[in-house]
Amino acid sequence: MIETLGLSKTFRNGAHAVRGVDIHVGQGEIVGFLGPNGAGKTTTMRMLTTLLRPTSGTAVVAGRDLLREPAEVRRRIGYVSQGGAVNPFTPLGEELELQAMLHGLTRDRARARVREVLAGLDLAGTRDAIGATLSGGRRRRFDIAFALLHEPALLFLDEPTTGLDPQSRANLWDHVRRLRAEHDVTVFLTTHYLDEADALCDRVLIIDHGLIVAEGAPAELKTGGRTLDDVFLDITGRSLREEAGHGA
Ligand SMILES: Nc1ncnc2c1ncn2[C@@H]1O[C@H](COP(=O)(O)OP(=O)(O)OP(=O)(O)O)[C@@H](O)[C@H]1O
């Protein structure tokens, strides 16, 4: 689902945000992308979602060449940014239908697709809700609903549970697992929470200073009775949680 070779990004100010990363994500995997602030996670994700042009390297995303066929890549992926897609004051069902029509669906088909997506995320009956009145967890699920309208094979989630309470986080993990189990959606997510990576991800990639410094299943990385926190500290010399500044 994702194959990159030497993907890198140097910004105009000379910042080497990503220094040549090789990423392999297989179909149906849930892969966590971890790293301290400024490590290069968002830059990598923006490149993989066609929002930022790499300086060098190659990538095939959802079966299409990232540089030569970006529109085809976009058709096959969903992206939930940190800020989310939910407008606080517009009825969300209406907004979702409009978005579905932008993806080329007729009004009837759009309505049916929105019903289907909302039901799949346990949001049935909330068509008239507005963002401002939603709890953090529901709001996040609406963000995901926007990204699923066009039935993407690959979903990118940028810090999906930041700011959620423990119960809402666990609920969101269940939904991500369900997407994979029921729709074979591949998921690539960034997180600052090592417990999230541990509980949800088949594999994690750890990036530091623009380079992948470790990867593997959480259980493979946690050798010798170490937690993922210990592993992270050993590799980078820093604590992910302290860097993130929002606890875990
Ligand atoms: N538009 C830009 N112009 C110049 N430098 C940038 C730009 N965007 C990011 N950078 C730099 O690139 C590096 C990687 O940033 P990036 O946002 O990808 O990190 P991150 O791992 O997502 O961090 P965070 O966890 O804080 O979101 C940082 O040093 C950052 O300052």
Automatic annotation (TrEMBL):
InterPro entries: AAA+_ATPase, ABC_transporter-like_ATP-bd, ABC_transporter_ATP-binding, P-loop_NTPase. The keyword Phosphoprotein does not apply. GO terms for molecular function: ATP binding; ATP hydrolysis activity. It is a peripheral membrane protein. One of its GO terms (biological process) is response to antibiotic. Residues 2-234 form the ABC transporter domain. Signal peptide: none annotated. GO terms for cellular component: plasma membrane. Keywords: Antibiotic resistance, ATP-binding, Nucleotide-binding, Transport. Pfam families: ABC_tran (PF00005). It comes from the Bacteria. It is found in: Cell membrane. Belongs to the ABC transporter superfamily. This is ABC-2 type transport system ATP-binding protein. It comes from Nonomuraea pusilla.
